[in-house]
Recover the amino acids of this structure.
């Protein structure tokens, strides 16, 4: 305990307290540092058992890769891969889906929500680049 502005430290119960300057006629408030670990040695801190990576089998049979969707049911006990059908059995819109990069802004319709969302993200990226260059 400290009186009349004298500093004190306390180590007890596994809690480290910072030194406090306690003027007379005040209440004592202790600041506990719960966020930092008390053990500073890395050897004493253990994070638990190491987790091994799961290696999934890779299909190498070319005939099966061409005719089936391999790995479509990886969770089941006896996975049955889905057999691919002829192209004519799938809907026409499936073949018009864009699988590459998104279209440039010039090709997009300005009356759509995607256009304005894309324009906003491009403006934010440009502003961040300018702000970063200004700070140098």
């Amino acid at each position: 305990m400290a009186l009349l502005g004298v500093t004190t430290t306390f180590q007890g119960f596994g809690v480290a307290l910072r030194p406090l300057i306690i003027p007379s006629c005040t209440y004592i408030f202790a600041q506990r540092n719960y966020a930092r670990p008390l053990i500073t040695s890395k050897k004493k801190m253990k994070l638990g058992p190491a987790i091994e990576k799961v290696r999934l089998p890779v299909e190498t049979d070319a005939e099966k890769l061409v005719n089936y969707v391999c790995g479509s049911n990886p969770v089941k006990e006896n996975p049955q891969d889905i057999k691919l059908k002829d192209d004519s059995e799938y809907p026409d819109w499936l073949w018009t889906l864009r699988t590459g990069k998104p279209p440039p802004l010039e090709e997009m319709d300005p009356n759509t929500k995607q256009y304005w969302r894309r324009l906003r993200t491009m403006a934010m990226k440009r502003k961040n680049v300018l702000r970063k260059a200004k700070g140098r």
Summary: The radius of gyration is 32 Å. The chain has three domains: 1-36, 62-96, 105-134.
